[in-house]
Every structure is written in structure tokens, then in C-alpha cells.
Amino acid sequence: MDENITSIHITETLSLSKVMTLLNDYPNLEKISCSPSVYNRTSEKYIDALNQLDVDVVKEYHWGASKQSCDYEQELLDLASEGYKAREIAEILDITINRVYYLLRRNKTKLDTNTKKYDYDEVKSLKESGLKPKEISEKLDIPIRTVYYILNKK
């Protein structure tokens, strides 16, 4: 029995036994929320009876997991802003690289980074000076596919 809780969310249709259990477990209950599908399957008698007891039954969507910030999220964003690569960030924070990518995607607007990571002019000038794409990739420490992308971009 928890007297501090005034609002709950249910995922199953209300029945007489369910209503009685809820009222016994939560004596100060003021609001019961449920999805529209659960609400539509609940008898009007139960909804009216709860309303007479000053307990509102409302339709609310509760889709997916709630966003939970992690304690290393700001540090991850700082490392990304400093130019660290995802793999390096994962090693520093001892988390998976997929988690790094997820958090970077989720916080894309918070990052103060330029969308153009590499100097296109430098890549093109190195190509014009006679270097091969693989050599450019090694010299600038960027992926070879990025070098090809820059060189083929018009």
C-alpha cells in the first residue's frame, strides 16, 4: 500500500477485482491513465464508479522507453566536440561503440560540430599534386571511402 501515489498507468482492462485492488493499494488515487485500446475495452460502469469516487480515468499514450540520461553523456559530447572519433570515445568511456553512435545521434543538435569534417580542398589539392587516394587517406588519417567520395563529388 502506497499512500503517496496519486496517479498510475494501467495496461489491462479494468474489472471489479482490479478496481478494488487499485483502490486498496493506492488509497489517495486521483488519476488512472491507460492506452485508448484499454480504455475502449473497459466497461462504462467502472469508469463512472471511479469518477464518483473522484478518480479520473483518462486515455494516455505511453509508447517506448522513457529517455534516461546517463552520467557520462556530457563527457561523451565534450569528447565528440573535441574531435575524438567514436571508437576512441568508446574506449575512453568503456562503453560500446553502438552506444556512442546512439548518444551522438540523440544529441545531434547539442553538438557544436561542423557537418563537413574534412577539408575538401586539401584532399583535392593532394590529388592534383599526384598522390593516390590511398596515400591521401593515410596522410590525412581519414577513411579511403571518404577520399573517394570527396574526389568524385562535383
Notes on the protein architecture:
The chain is mainly alpha-helical. The chain contains 9 helices and 3 strands; from the N terminus they run βαβααβαααααα. The protein has helices at residues 16-25, 36-41, 44-52, 73-81, 86-93, 97-106, 120-128, 133-140, 144-152; strands at 7-10, 31-34, 56-59. A 3-stranded parallel sheet has the order 1-2-3. α5 (86-93) packs across α6 (97-106) and α8 crosses α9. The model has no long low-confidence stretch (mean pLDDT 85).
Instruction: Compute the number of strand runs.
Output: 3
Instruction: Give the CA-based shape.
Output: elongated
Poorly predicted segments: none
Order of helices and strands: EHEHHEHHHHHH
Distance between the termini: 68 Å
What structural class do the secondary elements suggest? Answer: mainly alpha
Keywords:
154 residues; mainly alpha; 3-stranded parallel β-sheet; 3 strands; elongated
Topology, element by element:
Elements: E1 7-10, H1 16-25, E2 31-34, H2 36-41, H3 44-52, E3 56-59, H4 73-81, H5 86-93, H6 97-106, H7 120-128, H8 133-140, H9 144-152
Parallel strand pairs: 1-2, 2-3
Quick summary of this structure?
Helices cover 51% and strands 8% of the residues.
